[in-house]
Design goal:
Helix content is about 35%, strand content about 15%. It starts with a helix and ends in a 6-residue tail after the last helix. By secondary structure, the chain is α/β, with parallel strands linked by helices. The radius of gyration is 20 Å and the shape is globular. The protein has one domain: Glycosidases (TIM Barrel). Helix 4 (about 70-80) packs parallel to helix 5.
């Protein structure tokens, strides 16, 4: 007992001496790298691509997911040609469907019509084309919660699943550059901190983004961090451009100053008819991308406004980016890289 007491007395100061894990109070090497990259692409691809519902609640069987010509390399090649430096995949969307073979989980590609590990293919393609890979993980999940409720706190059982799956992602695919969590207000502060620390433990240089949501983004434009999105390394602006005066990364949160970049997460799809104040993130048969000029202007405003841009793409139900998107992004590349154009 005496020896145990001595070990505990020594362990206390040693643990206390370790630097705290949390959002940066000044520019760190990891945040500097993120800022230097400036431009990324996200990919919304999951069961909604096949059910036609952006807010798919996970009631369809996993076999509904069945891309016939899956080509993740094509996605990343188009992003590379556009000038993107990092890429983010919807590893698990709100339908609860996992794009990898999640151990001990029965709603994933392993039970679907196409058993390709999309996360593995995505990481491999990013490595091939020189983009930093990242993941999106949605907290809202009617399939696992048993109810569709934007605001209800989650159960301990479901949080255990979240931790297991996030651990899988950052263990099976190590050194992840970027991790986005969506609908984080369903978590309590302790749960958000637990996820933040878990990711930092597994991927120490990972940039963690807690999405503050569409309405909140439109209100504050990155000038402040929402409490329900804390802790986060970056203030995410869902379908929101930086403020006209440009983003000041010196953000005060709870009377303390932090260094927090801003990222515009820009959906390139058309208006989503059931929610006409928002754009669609997923492909539909009626999907038509916004014009190259609109996308290029948003890029220009992000670069001018000291913000990163995360541009969303929507592969179709064959598993490829359709030709109308490819041609749109080729034209966007011409506009943003023209010395007399957007840059």
């Amino acid at each position: 007992m005496a020896a145990g007491a001595m070990v505990n007395s020594l362990a206390g100061p040693l643990l206390a001496a370790e630097p705290p894990v949390g959002p940066a109070t000044e520019l760190t090497p990891a945040v500097a790298t993120y800022q230097r990259l400036r431009f990324g692409c996200s990919f919304h691809f999951s069961t909604p691509t096949f059910t036609g519902d952006d807010y798919d609640t996970g009631k369809a069987p996993p076999t509904v997911y069945d891309p016939t010509h899956l080509n993740v390399r094509q996605w990343i090649r188009v992003a590379r040609d556009l000038g993107a430096k990092y890429a983010v995949l919807t590893a698990k969307y709100m339908s609860g469907f996992a794009l990898w073979d999640s151990k001990g989980y029965d709603y994933s590609v392993a039970r679907s019509g196409n058993k390709t590990d999309v996360v593995a293919a995505f990481v491999a393609a990013c490595n091939e084309y020189g983009l930093r890979p990242g993941f999106y993980y949605c907290i809202l999940d009617p399939h696992n919660e048993g109810i569709f409720d934007w605001n209800a706190p989650i159960s301990d059982k479901y949080f255990d699943l979240i931790e297991r799956q996030v651990t899988q992602l950052h263990t099976l695919y190590p050194d992840t550059f970027y991790q986005l969590f969506d609908i984080t207000w369903k978590l309590n502060p302790a749960q958000r901190w637990e996820l933040y620390r878990l990711v930092k433990q597994l991927s120490p240089n990972c940039i963690i983004v807690m999405n503050q949501g569409f309405k909140q983004s439109r209100v504050n434009q990155g000038r402040s961090c929402e409490p329900a999105s804390w802790p986060t390394d970056v203030i995410n602006g869902e379908d929101t451009l930086p403020p006209l005066e440009g983003h000041d990364p010196h953000i005060i949160y709870d009377k303390k100053q932090y260094y927090m970049p801003f990222e515009t997460w820009f959906p390139t799809g058309p208006i989503y008819p059931p929610m006409p104040w928002m754009h669609t993130w997923f492909w539909h048969p009626w999907y038509r991308p916004q014009s190259p000029e609109v996308i290029a202007e948003a890029y220009r405003l992000c670069m001018k406004g000291n913000a990163n841009m995360l541009l969303n793409m929507a592969p179709d139900n064959t598993g490829r980016l359709p030709e109308n998107q490819v041609q749109t992004f080729h034209r966007v590349a011409e506009l943003i890289h023209n010395p007399h154009g957007c840059e």
